[in-house]
Specification:
Strand order of the largest sheet: 6-7-8-3-9-10
Mean pLDDT: 82
Radius of gyration: 33 Å
Structural class: alpha/beta
Number of helices: 19
Shape: elongated
Oligomer: single chain
Length: 588
Amino acid sequence: MKKRSGFSVMCGLIGMVKPLSGYMIIAIIMGLLGHLSAIFITVFGAFAILNVLGIKMILSLKMIFISVILFAIVRGFLRYAEQSCNHFIAFKLLALIRDKVFIALRRLCPAKLEGRDKGDLISVITSDIELLEVFYAHTISPVVIAILNSIVMCIFIGRIHLLLALVALMAYVIVGLFIPVIISGKSKDTGNSFRDKTGELSSFVLDSLRGLPEILQYNRGMQRLSEMNDRTEKLSEDEKHLKMLNGFNLAITNTVILLCDLCMIIVSVLLYDNGSIDFAGVLVSVVALMSSYGPVVALANLGSGLQNTFAAGNRVLDILEESPLTADIVGKQNIEFKGIKASNVTFSYENVEGNEVKNNSENMSENVIEKEVGNIAENDRIKKIDNEEILSNITVDIPQEKIVGISGKSGSGKSTLLKLFMRFWATNEGSIDISNVSIDNINTENLRNMESFVTQDTYLFNDSIKNNIRIAKLDATDEEIETACKKASIHNFIMKLPNGYDTKTGELGDMLSGGEKQRIGLARAFLHNAPLMLLDEPTSNLDSLNEAIILKSLKEEGRGKTVALVSHRQSTMRIADKVYSIENGRLS
């Protein structure tokens, strides 16, 4: 995680308010007027007392009471309007941030997300973003309101005497600035630790739920529960520390307020004694200060909780500001598929930092490049395998409308080559060309439309079979989906299910077998109807009979398409027009 100061996080979060800046200005104006209305209810009460005591005031007692009633009505209306604006801004921004986070995750996927803790990502997307509501609804406008309110009150009190205005300014600065900064600094590490442990606990719970069958099978329930309780206890300790800081914050704030009030009383009395102000000045200045702490107390109360919010904001900004290893390409002329070729391709995870710099160096200064490399190394989200080359000087030619097999043992680099074809990663050396054009110069959307990628483990959403297949073509008709399923030899199986194509697959497709999920993945590829099919072990979960059916379907239904078929099974290679064998990252 990138280390940012609280100020940097705050600036990053405030920058997102720009689309709603008009609403923010309205909220600030209404909040300021609302607080001033509340303050002057008390101040006008002091005027009423002075009237009763026979001290002549500008306003009559009747006008004072009418003004107080109007202030009360206006205060209620403005308070409601301010909070409505703030929460509208907050929830609108949370929706925009979630949208930005999902776009960022899509941009980073899969290279930057391989090995990333999914439970931790869920924590960022849910609780961390939700926590930002505190910042947008209860931090930005209150800070500005507190500053403006303090200025107005210092001017008002300063009209009585300049020294009294300095006492009020001292009170506002101590309560609204010094105390929040001190408490925030004390809670910084705890806030970061709390957010990190929250993400870790979410990951552990998610992992435990997915592994329940294994936990029960090997009787590890108590061990897992004990570890969960231990993580929860550590999280509770951080939360307890934050609560204690909050209590300390409240106590020190109230104490400082009392001392500042006492200071104002002493100074005003001394000024009264030497004839600098009259009794009205003493009463009004003391009452004005005592009634005007509301906005700065709101800032003081943010002290202990703000670091928790900044820690959440820091985790969100990590995702939004992280650079992809292979940025999307736009602005190029679309091409048609006429074969794909890998020429002298070398790839290893040890040099992916260099890949990112290579892909973006044209638009980066030397300092920025150094910074980007440092960020990647610091995040340490890149899979490294003992600095080993995954592929070394690989040349593979896959002509148009041919089936080319790529065989080899598990771990030999076959799947990595397909990911390079998809441009999920960038090569360290060599090139990959489609239609004699480097994939680094092909629009990403154009590239994805030319390729259908079927992985070893087909991911199924917790939705109907129909919708799981339709993801490959959102406007597909039911007839098109059925045709794709027939090509993948799974239509008959689906029709035997109680709800047919509307049958739910369950979480992670748990309701289906591995072979059935693979065939749904193949149906997706047929529905996508791309000219290039990249098939990574498409029959690994099938028995010999079903494998033969799938291979026959590929041979017959794949006419007119180009197929790169990866498998460690020799039986799968029999439909290939040509076979490349990779051993330990090299052609053999």
